[in-house]
Hints:
Blueprint: H1 8-13, H2 15-24, H3 29-38, H4 40-61, E1 64-68, E2 72-78, E3 82-90, H5 100-109, E4 115-123, H6 128-137, E5 141-143, H7 146-156
Antiparallel strand pairs: 1-2, 1-5, 2-3, 3-4
Helix pairs in contact: 3-4, 4-6
Amino acid sequence: MKYTRLTKEQLEELNQEFSTFLATQSIDKKEWDAIKAEKPEVAEQELDVFSDLIWEGVLSKADFLEHFSKNHIFLFHSFDTYVQSIVLKSLDTEVDFLTTEGLQWLSDNMFTEKIEMRVGKKEFTEERNASLFALIQQGAILSDGQLYNQINSIIES
């Protein structure tokens, strides 16, 4: 398995897609129920293959990721061969970016000495999607890129 198996909730949300996936392998509901009952290891393999296909599709379309922690915000913009990052760090350890108040504080203090900002670029050393998945496993989430683009446009001007 290249990524991780989708959760039960995720699989339930993708029920129609999973049915289509099984249909492409000529497996109908009756046969799927029999596989689950008689060959659970085969059912597990099918779930793993389906999960990898879903992850591959999602990661291939992913352009932006974000990771918020108490005192840091990591913003990523991914390209084919590299990822650009903007890292914001609060030098005030009392600030918590996981709260509404902390985000307001960031807005008020963005370009002051209270915020350390670093911009970087890293070439992918492994396959792009695997690199993005590693960021997700570390806590990053997919994003529309709005915050990255706002901050990047200010930096570039």
